[in-house]
Design a protein that fits this description.
Blueprint: H1 2-14, E1 23-24, E2 36-44, E3 50-55, E4 60-66, E5 77-89, E6 92-102, E7 124-130, E8 134-143, E9 149-160, E10 165-175, E11 183-192, E12 203-211, E13 217-224
Parallel strand pairs: 4-6, 10-12
Antiparallel strand pairs: 1-11, 2-3, 2-5, 3-4, 5-6, 7-8, 8-11, 9-10, 12-13
Organism: Caecibacteroides pullorum
Protein name: NigD-like C-terminal domain-containing protein
Pfam family, one: NigD_C
């Protein structure tokens, strides 16, 4: 029951970022002073503007300035990648967001939930690491003018109640739409994992399969310990 509730909650919050408009490598080439480039969980207020962010390290900050003027669904959350700086304003500490891009962060789905079948067009993985209740990926794709779609396929979920462990096997879904492989562009993906934190599960072993331009299928394995408070 808990898993179904969590999945419904996250789907409502995150499904809107299924399709990522690819970010050119040069987008973040300008260096702002004392600025970090990180994955963040951003929360909106009643008017849909970003009010606060949570870092993967667990620090929470008010959004004092947002140069991106981002708007999302009111009173919801979204996964983003942002250039930001810690600032002080009117006696309080918060963040100045210089640039914001949506990270692709839908809940993984079983293969039979993809009407057109599972697409595994290749990518190159620049880095992959465990964030706060997410598995983060920084990818490079070869593209020209097409719109690439990303998602995550849930291949297998096994729960060992006695050992208080579960094992999850995922595959990166990538549909390049037949785009010409002309230029290298950056894509940011963030896989939600909190829905696998069923009662009695302390540790989740996550394996992610990624099809690459070299023709290999690379597998990345991480151990995830759920952080329930979000």
């Amino acid at each position: 029951m808990k898993r179904k509730v969590m999945a419904a909650y996250w789907c409502g919050c995150l499904w809107g970022v299924l399709c990522l408009l690819l970010t050119a490598c040069g987008e973040y080439s300008y260096h702002y002073p004392s600025v970090k480039l990180e994955f963040l969980t951003a929360y909106s207020g009643g008017d849909g503007t970003l009010e606060r962010v949570l870092t993967d390290g667990g620090e929470e900050y008010a959004v004092l300035v947002d140069d991106s003027h981002s708007h999302i669904r009111p009173d919801s959350l979204v996964r983003i990648v942002s250039n930001y700086e810690l600032v002080h304003k009117e006696g309080g500490e918060g963040v100045h967001l210089y640039a914001v891009s949506a990270a692709v962060a839908p809940i993984p789905l079983p293969a039979d939930k993809f009407p057109e079948g599972v697409k595994t067009d290749p990518v190159d993985v620049l880095s992959v690491w465990m964030g706060r209740n997410y598995l983060n990926l920084m990818l490079t794709v070869k593209a020209q003018h097409g719109k690439h779609k990303f998602h995550y396929v849930e291949d297998r979920v096994d729960v060992d109640a006695e050992a208080r462990r579960s094992s999850v096997e995922l595959t990166l879904y990538h549909d390049d739409g037949g785009d010409t492989q002309a230029y290298s562009q950056r894509a940011y993906c963030s896989i939600p994992l909190l829905q696998y934190a069923d009662e009695g599960v302390d540790t989740v072993e996550v394996s992610l399969h990624v099809h690459t331009y070299s023709g290999e299928v690379k597998t990345y394995t991480f151990e995830y310990r759920p952080l329930i408070a979000e």
